[in-house]
């Protein structure tokens, strides 16, 4: 059993908070290119192609559970694409999902840049949790790589699923 102190440095007790669903982007919600990066079209824009089952599964999530996207995109510091291009892509993604994404965070850095946001570090998840009053222990994270699983654990997210399990229809 958890005990919440009045001066809990992490904010209000979980009773006032709600669960969320945190999703990785590339390889989890959308398809990758042959280099396992977000695909670009011939004009350099990010091509958003939803993976099978993603739209249906996310649209079946309880409306009371906000959906957030947390993505490592060192492509930004590598100047493969700009932050603005990613913003456009996230808008496109949300349109394709019917507007159900409540927020997103990107880490634009590389390994070794010393940031606090690059998964497996929990920075992006912790920021979203603080901004949206999220109960992390009651939340779920979905990703396609071990860094996603480690990020979920480091952030104290209650459950982690690999995308291949989460988005495969149950028989
Ligand atoms: Mg991924
Ligand atoms: Zn970062």
Give a verbal description of the structure.
- The structure is a single chain.
- With 171 residues, the chain is of the alpha/beta class.
- The protein has a domain at 16-107 and 119-145: 3-Layer(aba) Sandwich (Rossmann fold).
- Helices cover 26% and strands 14% of the residues.
- It has helices at 54-59, 83-96, 123-132, 146-155, 163-166; strands at residues 21-23, 67-72, 101-107, 140-143, 159-162.
- It has a five-stranded parallel sheet with strand order 3-2-1-4-5.
- The longest helix is centred in the middle third of the chain and has 14 residues, at 83-96.
- It is globular, with a radius of gyration of 16 Å.
- Bound molecules: magnesium ion (MG) and zinc ion.
Distance between the termini: 34 Å
List low-confidence stretches.
Answer: 3-7
Rg computed from alpha carbons, rounded to a whole number of angstroms: 16 Å
User: What portion of the residues fall into strands of 2 or more residues?
Assistant: 5-15%
CATH third-tier fold name of the domain at 16-107 and 119-145 = Rossmann fold
Bound molecules: magnesium ion, zinc ion
